[in-house]
Write a structure and sequence with these properties.
Blueprint lengths: L4 E6 L2 H9 L8 E4 L7 E4 L1 H4 L9 H7 L4 E3 L3 H18 L3 E5 L2 E5 L4 H4 L2 H16 L3 E6 L2 H8 L7 E3 L5 H5 L12 H9 L5 H6 L2 H8 L3 H8 L15 E12 L2 H21 L2 E12 L4 E12 L2 H18 L5 E13 L15 H13 L12
Parallel strand pairs: 2-4, 7-8
Antiparallel strand pairs: 1-6, 1-7, 2-3, 5-6, 9-12, 10-11, 10-12
């Protein structure tokens, strides 16, 4: 049976959810992003993209390009709800679903073709079901591997369906810009173009003496990717390697007390995410970024593994204290907490309906936030 892989990518997901939930936003230039001096664009509607606004762009830049854009703060809980609906559609056709984010996934539908028809029919079914359940559109790429499917899904957005047959891969890829190669960052893309390489065909055919200074030991792999060669399997239910939460400040902060208050708030968010996934951490780390963008990390192993908010907050505070003592007066633009060495939380008891908790306080906080929002109930040391 011919291998068939789909890459499904929701169209302008966050902004599309906002436009669907509020009819007054339909057809309007919408930016979903964090406000403040260093806010960035999390999502841009297609109406605002016409002005050059893109995801990850500083919000100030976006508003210069489109001053009449409507800015909305992200509602992550809402996007997660819709994402669960979307992923339920994926699992209707195959158990081989590799989620990349809330709005994007690879699906291996090779074995599903006997039941649901060929890969194109399955792609159409998925698009129709997503629209039926959520009122949103998705773009789908259909190919024999993950790489080509991902490239294909981006070729006819929004609401696209692009099929790349196995014997037409080079015909489709050769004329594309090298910037469409997944994993080729902006800076590397600029260097590749500066070397006179602009298309997949030119990248595939470039001599080693041109490519090696750009890609080093990965030269052959890049050449293969430019030819659409990719044998990676679709890996369902990937184990999480780490979990993190961070905050970029509107203004640099140097006061230790203010930094510790910010860190306590970040710890609460990280712990809430940890418990939602029914995980525990065996290693707690802090991420520290100075005013000049220099980034530091400090970490400490803990035993036994924990998801207790007080423990994680205490260890994080101690790590930050030690760093601040060695860098007195440092101004920070970002703080974060990174939890690694993750393991499943203790097995649920027969009558337990929620994750096990180290303290009843954590359970109460999580329950209140689930019902009334992430800011409904907070610890005193997180109030700034």
């Amino acid at each position: 049976m011919t291998r068939a892989v789909l890459h499904v990518d929701m169209d302008a997901f966050y902004s599309s959810v906002e436009q669907r939930d509020d009819a007054a936003l339909a057809g309007k230039p919408v930016i979903v992003g964090w406000t403040g001096g260093r806010g960035v664009v999390a999502a841009a509607s297609y109406e605002v993209r016409k002005f050059g606004v893109r995801s990850a762009m500083p919000l100030r830049t976006a508003l210069r390009l489109c001053p009449h854009a409507i800015c909305i703060r992200p509602r992550m809980q809402r996007y997660q709800e819709v994402s669960r609906q979307v992923f339920s559609v994926f699992h209707e056709v195959t158990p081989l679903v590799e989620g990349l984010s809330l709005d994007e996934a690879f699906l291996d539908v090779t074995a599903s073709q006997e039941l649901f028809g060929d890969a194109v029919a399955i792609a159409r079914r998925i698009k129709s079901r997503i629209r039926e359940l959520t009122g949103l559109t998705a773009s789908v790429g259909v190919a024999a591997n993950k790489l080509v499917a991902k490239i294909a899904s981006d070729l006819s957005k929004p609401d696209g369906l692009t099929v790349v047959p196995r014997d037409q891969v080079l015909e489709v890829l050769d004329s594309l810009s090298v910037r469409r190669l997944p994993g080729l960052g902006r800076k590397t893309g600029e260097k590749v173009e500066a070397a006179g390489i602009h298309t997949f065909a030119e990248l595939r055919g470039a001599p080693d003496w041109v490519l090696r200074p750009l890609f080093g030991r990965y030269t052959q792999r890049i050449r293969e990717r430019a030819a659409g060669i990719d044998d990676r399997p679709v890996l369902p239910d990937l184990e999480e390697k780490s979990l993190s939460a961070e905050e970029t400040f509107a203004d640099d902060i140097s006061a230790p007390a203010a930094l510790q208050a910010e860190l306590a708030d970040i710890a609460e968010l990280a712990c809430e995410r940890l418990r939602k996934r029914q995980l525990m951490t065996g290693c707690i780390g802090v991420k520290i970024r100075r005013q000049d963008f220099t980034t530091f990390s400090r970490q400490r192993a803990v035993a036994p593994p924990t998801h207790d908010s007080r423990t994680i907050a205490r260890v994080s505070a101690e790590l930050l204290d030690r760093w601040l003592a060695a860098h007195p007066g440092a101004k920070l633009r970002l703080l974060g907490i990174v939890l690694t060495d993750l393991s499943p939380a203790c097995q649920l008891g027969l009558f337990e309906a929620a994750p096990p908790y180290t303290t009843r306080l954590d359970a109460t906080l999580d329950e209140a936030r689930a019902r009334f929002g992430s800011r409904a109930l907070r610890r005193g040391n997180t109030i700034k």
